[in-house]
Amino acid sequence: METITILGLFLMAYLLGSIPTAVWWGKRFYGIDVREFGSGNAGATNTFRVLGKNAGIPVLFIDVIKGTISVLLAHFSYFLDGSNEFINLELGLGMTALLGHVFPIFAGFKGGKGVATVLGVVICLAPFASCLALCVFLLVLFSTRYVSLSSITAGLSFPFFLNIVCNNQNQILLFFSVFVSALLILTHKKNILRLLNREESKINLFTKKI
C-alpha cells in the first residue's frame, strides 16, 4: 500500500506538470497555439513574446504553482517531515513535475523549458535562496529585457545563495541546486548562441501584444 501511494504521488506530479498552460491558454482565449510562433516553445516566456503580458502573467503563475503543488504532495506520504526520505520525495516529485512540463502527455510531449516550474519547486524547498535568485532574475530582466539571460543568471546564482549565503548543510539540496543550474544552461543552449550572436529577442513586459 505504501509503494502504491508513492507511485500515485509521482503520477499526480507528472500529470500536474503535464498541464500545457501556455498551449491551452493561447488556444482558449486567443485561438493561437504558441508553439507555432516565436521560439516555438510552450512556456511562459514564449507566451509573453507571442501574446503579451495579459496572457504571459497567468501562464507564468500557473506554471509556478504546478511545481509548488507537486512538491507539497510529499505531505501525503508516510515519511517524517524534514527527514532525508521526505526531502528526497519532495525533490523527486518536483523533478517529475518538471518532466511533465517538458514532455507533457496532454500536448504531444512537446512542452516548455521548465523555468517557471523549477521556480515553483525551489520556492518550496529553499524559499529564501529562491527569493534572492528571483531578485537576480528581475534585475537582469529589467536591465536587459532578455528572459533567457535572466533565467540563466538566476539559475547560476541559486547554488551560491543556497549553499553560501544560506549556509545549506544538506547534501541532497546542494546537488539539486547544481543540477538546476546545469539544467537551465542545457535547456538554453540555443538561447546562449543567439545571445552571443546578438540575435536573441527581447521581451516587452509593459505593452499588450494582442
Helix vs. strand class: mainly alpha
What integer is the average pLDDT?
A: 90
What is the global morphology?
A: globular
Report the end-to-end length measured between terminal Cα atoms.
50 Å
Q: Low-confidence parts, pLDDT < 50 over ≥5 residues? A: none
Summarize the structure.
The protein has one domain. The chain is globular, with a radius of gyration of 17 Å. The chain has ten helices and no strands.
Characterization of the model:
The structure is a single chain. By secondary structure, the protein is an all-alpha fold. It has one domain (2-196). Helices cover 70% and strands 0% of the residues. The chain contains 10 helices and no strands. Helix 4 runs antiparallel to helix 5 (84-102). The radius of gyration is 17 Å and the shape is globular.
Properties at a glance:
210 residues, mainly alpha, 10 helices
Q: How are the SSEs placed, and which strands pair?
A:
Blueprint: H1 2-17, H2 21-30, H3 44-51, H4 53-72, H5 84-102, H6 115-125, H7 127-144, H8 147-165, H9 171-187, H10 189-196
Helix pairs in contact: 1-4, 1-5, 2-3, 2-4, 3-4, 4-5, 4-6, 5-6, 6-7, 7-8, 8-9
